[in-house]
UniProtKB/TrEMBL annotation:
Gene3D superfamilies: Nucleic acid-binding proteins
Source organism (scientific name): human gut metagenome
Alphabetical list of Pfam families matching this protein: Enc34_ssDNA-bd
Protein name as catalogued: Phage-associated protein
InterPro entries documented for this protein: Enc34_ssDNA-bd, NA-bd_OB-fold
Length: 99
């Protein structure tokens, strides 16, 4: 499922930022990208991202998953927990998403 909703995140930290020139990964097409790190203490921003994910699941999920909205636990969602999904101190006590 591709996120097709635009939201504006403020005051996040960037990691693996390729924002000035696109970078090719494993010989693929060069793309601009970054990992956006959101402190877990910023619950308002995390809720905004969660709401956007839910809206995309409800609007696009049925067309891609046989008429049903898939359960969140069955998908690899864009917002992930830095404490469990990254072995990197920069992601500690934070959520992150890649864009």
């Amino acid at each position: 499922l591709t996120m097709s909703k635009r939201i504006m995140l403020r005051n996040v930290r960037l990691s693996y930022a390729h924002v000035w020139e696109p970078k090719s990964v494993n010989g693929g097409e060069p793309k601009y990208s970054a990992s956006l790190i959101i402190p877990k203490a910023d619950t308002a921003m995390i809720q905004m991202v969660e709401k956007a994910i839910d809206e995309v699941l409800k609007s696009e999920g049925p067309g891609k998953f046989g008429g049903k909205v898939p359960p969140r636990g069955s998908l690899k969602l864009p917002l992930r927990d830095g404490d469990t999904d990254r072995d990197d101190a920069a992601y500690a006590d934070a959520m992150f998403l890649n864009a």
